[in-house]
Backbone:
């Protein structure tokens, strides 16, 4: 499973205090994409230097309409300035990351190791950092973009956040410093039922860098169905602020890591297109975001069917994703996204991913003095360079 990003631009992120105790307006009462009627978009959109017509302007191409509320409501100039030359997509150089699947509550046990009836939980997750950073947890909060800074507003104008927990450079670091006491909270306040306020917001932000980066993980709290009735922390959404742009991370289904077999080799099974079962899958179906077909089958699919072969839901666009990998002669070759993330495949039966050697890009030198390896997320994102649009909305 991977992630793609929708963005809200025009914001400069500064390493300033990220608290706002008062909020004059209740955003739940404002007009949002989720509760408004009518069309929000024009008849076409621009991407990667191309123009694509929209058959359904009332629908958000990359997800649900409510996802747009998480990107803010700041207007942008119109008409847009014409892009100069090729609109090439470059990778994001992320310095920090919280692994979404690792965010959880762990109930504190007794001294003898037995399960405790206590209401205390330890919030745990795994983080990667290419620079010093800090983690802070906010409750019943939402992000606020004001005066070029990211701040936080709280429900009922009551500030509720943890202290800052600082971390050094390193990957696979475990955060377990915060103790959550469920007895001090009403369960209704910990359950997300819609709107802009989230019960738990886990924030990681760079420290002592020129242009601060921030990632926020919005979570809700559920109750287990078994006899323990333990609380379960469930991550819902993730956003990142990088280079003055706010990105909403979306799940991409079908980018699995290679699995190690018993003899130490890697298993590449399941990476083929689910239609032809021969070429490696490299095309994402929107808006369901299933990466399950190859380029050739995508061309055939758009003329015959309009449903995703995985979930059977109607699709509006197909996007082919490829990566560029550096070669020994300092050039670049085009590979599939799966191969770009996982390395060379044991069986390369695909023929449509042609090898294109290009001039090397300007890659900034790695910072000296890092005592630990670069984060897994940073290495992956720096491999994904090119995004090619296959076809427009049906």
Residues:
């Amino acid at each position: 499973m991977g992630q793609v990003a929708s963005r809200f631009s025009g914001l400069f992120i500064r390493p300033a205090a990220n608290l706002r105790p008062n909020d004059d307006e209740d955003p739940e009462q404002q007009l949002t994409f989720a509760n408004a009627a009518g069309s929000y978009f024009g008849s076409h959109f621009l991407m990667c230097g191309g123009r694509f017509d929209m058959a359904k302007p009332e629908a958000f191409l990359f997800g649900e309409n409510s996802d747009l509320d998480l990107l803010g409501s700041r207007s942008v100039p119109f008409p847009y300035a014409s892009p100069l030359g090729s609109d090439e997509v470059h990778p994001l150089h992320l310095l920090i990351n919280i692994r979404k699947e690792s965010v959880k509550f762990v109930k504190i046990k007794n001294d003898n190791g037995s399960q405790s009836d206590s209401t205390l939980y330890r919030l745990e997750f795994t983080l990667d950092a290419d620079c010093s950073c800090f983690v802070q947890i906010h409750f019943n909060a939402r992000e606020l973009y004001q005066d070029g800074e990211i701040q936080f507003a709280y429900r009922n104008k009551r500030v509720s956040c943890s202290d800052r927990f600082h971390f050094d450079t390193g990957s696979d670091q475990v955060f377990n410093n915060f103790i959550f006491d469920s007895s001090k909270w009403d369960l209704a306040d910990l359950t997300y039922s819609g709107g802009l306020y989230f019960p738990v917001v886990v924030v990681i932000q760079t420290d002592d860098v020129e242009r601060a980066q921030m990632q926020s993980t919005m979570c809700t709290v559920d109750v287990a169905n078994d006899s323990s009735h333990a609380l379960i922390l469930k991550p819902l959404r993730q956003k990142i602020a990088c280079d003055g742009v706010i990105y909403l991370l979306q799940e991409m289904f079908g980018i699995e890591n290679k699995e190690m077999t018993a003899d130490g080799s890697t298993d590449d099974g399941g990476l083929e297109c689910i239609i032809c079962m021969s070429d490696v899958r490299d095309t994402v179906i929107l808006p369901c975001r299933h990466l399950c077909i190859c380029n050739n089958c995508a061309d055939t699919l758009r003329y015959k069917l309009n449903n995703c072969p995985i979930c059977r839901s109607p699709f509006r666009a197909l996007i082919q994703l490829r990566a560029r990998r550096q070669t020994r002669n300092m050039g670049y070759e085009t590979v599939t996204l799966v191969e770009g993330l996982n390395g060379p495949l044991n069986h390369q039966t695909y023929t449509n991913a042609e090898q294109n050697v290009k001039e090397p890009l300007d890659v900034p030198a790695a910072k000296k003095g890092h005592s630990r390896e670069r984060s897994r997320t940073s290495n992956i994102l720096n491999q994904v360079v090119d995004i090619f649009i296959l076809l427009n909305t049906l």
User: Anything to note?
Assistant: The chain has two domains: 1-42+63-86+93-250, 271-391.
